[in-house]
UniProtKB/TrEMBL annotation:
UniProt keyword annotations, A-Z: DNA-binding, Transcription, Transcription regulation
Domain HTH lysR-type per the UniProt entry, residue ranges: 1-61
Official protein name in the record: LysR family transcriptional regulator
Source organism phylogeny: Bacteria, Pseudomonadati, Pseudomonadota, Gammaproteobacteria, Pseudomonadales
GO molecular function: DNA binding; DNA-binding transcription factor activity
Pfam families hit by this protein: HTH_1, LysR_substrate
Family: Belongs to the LysR transcriptional regulatory family.
């Protein structure tokens, strides 16, 4: 359909309702001559005479009545759609689809989801939690949450969640049996729980203390690809784990996990919420962005219950 097919419809309906060009002009806030010109253009484009005009009155022709019956409901639907979209800007609603890594879910989203749903009762959330990178545009996601190094440069990206630090953790039982490492290289004599990234690479453990930095490829009999299972395995005493903060705090507070080599813990880049560059961000996504950017909205979960 050509765009000019819609030209003059509002004027046509207004003239039909007001039964006159002058009254329609007052209602529309334009001049009577502009109303008359708009109707002439519409009739010329349609090849129809829509109004019978006299010096005293304006009335719809038979074909004009039929045309009004056809276009009036459609214009009402367009008006209703515009009003509903305008309402969405004030009261965000609809389904928000996110693609996130398991660590991003545990650290960024899980602590705040209950409060987010309370603040925005008309927004529904669909999450695909996977460590494999996805094309969020082709797969229909509104946004994703990953480490900043994983985000393509053509995306709009912003920092979310807490400042991050890599931490070495183990259960009290494991440390009682195997001893406390006093230097990162001491980890080579321990059972360490390895993490395999979606790329297939085993994570190397990075350490920093002052100007000294080093990376280790630790050894262990257990390799995982889930952050949550990694923490569970450390809780079970299966070895020493390397995990970022934001999820493990409750376990540390309860004494179920113990940090080791604290003075060797490096800071790492924060999580980024990213989405395609667009002129206008949907209200439902803008609501999540504003919520996550509010530092007061983030805090570690009070209870860390693992499924």
């Amino acid at each position: 359909m050509r765009q000019d097919h819609l030209d003059g419809l509002v004027t046509f309906i207004t003239v039909a309702e007001e039964k006159g060009f002058s009254a329609a002009a007052i209602r529309l806030g334009i001049t009577p001559s502009a109303v008359s010109q708009s109707i002439r253009n519409l009739e010329k484009r349609l090849g129809l005479v829509l109004f019978n005009r006299t010096t005293r009155s304006v009335a719809l022709t038979e074909i004009g009545e039929r045309y009004l019956q056809c276009v009036h409901p459609a214009l009402e639907q367009l008006t209703k759609a515009s009003q509903e979209l305008g309402r969405e800007a004030e009261f965000p609603s609809g389904l928000l689809r996110l693609n996130v890594s398991s660590a991003a879910y545990l650290i960024v989203l899980r602590p705040v989801l209950q409060r987010f749903f309370s603040c925005y009762p008309d927004i529904s959330l669909e999450l695909r939690v996977e460590n494999q990178l996805a094309d969020i545009v082709s797969q229909g996601f509104d946004a994703g949450i990953r480490f900043g190094s994983s985000v393509d440069r053509d995306m709009v990206a912003l920092k979310v969640g807490p400042a991050l630090q890599a931490q070495v953790i183990a259960s009290p039982d494991y440390l009682l049996e195997r001893g406390l490492p006093d230097h990162p290289r001491s980890l080579l004599e321990h059972d360490c729980i390895n993490f395999r990234h979606a790329t297939g690479q085993i994570e190397r453990w990075a350490f920093a203390k002052g100007d000294e930095k080093l990376e280790l490829q630790v050894r262990g009999r257990l390799t995982l690809n889930s952050s949550e299972v990694l923490v569970r395995s450390a809780l079970d005493g299966l070895g020493i784990a390397y995990m970022i903060n934001g999820y493990i705090e409750p376990f540390l507070a309860e004494g179920r996990l113990i940090r080791v080599l604290e003075d060797w813990s490096p800071t790492i880049p924060r999580f980024m919420l990213y989405y395609p560059s667009r002129r206008r961000v949907p209200a439902k996504l803008r609501a999540l962005i504003d919520f996550l950017r509010d530092e007061r909205s983030w805090s570690p979960p009070r209870e860390a219950v693992l499924a």
